[in-house]
Amino acid sequence: MANILVNSLKRLYAAGRVTKEQIAERAEKGTITEADYQEITGEEYGE
Q: Is the pLDDT of residue 14 over 60?
């Protein structure tokens, strides 16, 4: 299930519908992993 979420967030991020900060909030809450954050944004978490 998380993979579907990550793919959706990746698509939304690429389209500019969600921000890097919104993705980081999900990582902080534990909804996605730090590796997922990196996959979505192309940057390491916490940079």
A: yes
